[in-house]
Amino acid sequence: MSDAVVSNSDKQSTQPTHAARGWFSRALDSDVFYSFRRSKLTMVAAAITVLFFLLAIFASWLAVQNPFDPAQLQLMNSRISPLWTADGQSPFLLGTDEQGRDVFSAILYGMRISLAVGVAGVIFAGALGIALGLMAGYFGGAVDGVIMRIADVQLTFPAILIALLVNGIAKSILGNRLDATSMLVVLVISIGLSFWVGYARTVRGSVMVEKNKDYVAAAQLIGLPAPVIMLRHVLPNTMGPILVIATINLALAIITEATLSFLGVGLPDTMPSLGTLIRIGNNYLFAGEWWIVAFPGLALAALILSINLLGDWLRDALNPKLR
Prior knowledge:
The protein contains 13 helices and no strands. The protein is mainly alpha-helical. The termini are far apart.
């Protein structure tokens, strides 16, 4: 009897392991992973993207100073050129800016902010757009008409103008009560409200196709509520296009945040993102301190390019017509 109990417990304990191995083996044998392995450019872009995320996550361990802490800054170290130049000094690998901040450390912390705003903005835009797209496609009628007309009106304006409008309204209402954290939230909301339309229109089109299929009729027949049908049965069949849009929108969200910060309506100078660092360095470009703007600009360009390359590959890999 005890042997039977032990054997049953062993079988139950090995079931999750076999399931995990089965999922992993299916992922390695999938067409998407095969397409990924065939494209060396995509593999390089993925490696660069992962590297940037790791640098942002471990910025506090890799940076030689905290650029957000005024106690660690010294004006005596301002405008020091990169380490490999004649006037370079250790440990400032990429030089310093006008406040004595190490440019490499500022890039690491600025990249953390840019990625955090971009990822949070994409999540907010995705959640809002998916919810509205599901309602518009599933219920149709007046609900569909109202949501899609709002989306059509918003498409007539560039995303940066929508972000500027939301940002300006928040600043006019809250005024001096906006601290750095509040500005971060305002930027996320501004970016999210700028990019929800793409998700809504894509999900609506997919839902209008899926809701007429037999599995949706069967779910309605057994009495499942509409939210359960939309989230559990319809939404998983629309995840492919959503992943492509989210990847491309991540790059657009980072660019939008950098543009807002470059225009001076983003985060304050005490909490700089990559866009803020570029704006600060642009003031010293013609004075000879080129490294203050060059390295943050190169980091932003490399990050955007790698994410866009991943988005283009994912779009092609999930397109059944190209398989």
